């Protein structure tokens, strides 16, 4: 499967902000309907998460195979 992606600048830190001082860290954003994320107006369905979960799965598998 191929998904569209882009680098984005974000002030969202969550746990990744604190973990980054101890280990390589990244965040996967999966925009919901109309591209809205991290907002009370977001309307997400399971289909919105397919790309993000696929990326996470493959990243974990690739890391485990090292």
TrEMBL record:
| GO MF, any single term | hydrolase activity, acting on carbon-nitrogen (but not peptide) bonds, in linear amidines
Pfam families linked to this entry: Peptidase_M20 (PF01546)
SUPFAM superfamilies given for it? Answer: Zn-dependent exopeptidases (SSF53187)
Keywords, A to Z, come to: Hydrolase
The record's annotation in InterPro entries points to: Amidase_Cbmase, Peptidase_M20
PANTHER family from the entry?
ALLANTOATE AMIDOHYDROLASE (PTHR32494:SF5), ALLANTOATE DEIMINASE-RELATED (PTHR32494)
Protein's UniProt name: N-carbamoyl-L-amino acid amidohydrolase
The species this protein belongs to is Salipiger bermudensis (strain DSM 26914 / JCM 13377 / KCTC 12554 / HTCC2601)
């Amino acid at each position: 499967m191929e998904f569209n992606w882009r680098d984005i600048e974000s002030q969202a830190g969550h746990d990744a902000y604190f973990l980054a001082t101890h280990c390589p860290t990244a965040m996967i954003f999966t925009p919901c309907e109309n591209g809205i994320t991290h907002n009370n107006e977001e309307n997400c369905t399971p289909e919105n998460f397919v790309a993000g979960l696929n990326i996470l799965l493959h990243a974990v598998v690739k890391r485990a195979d090292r």
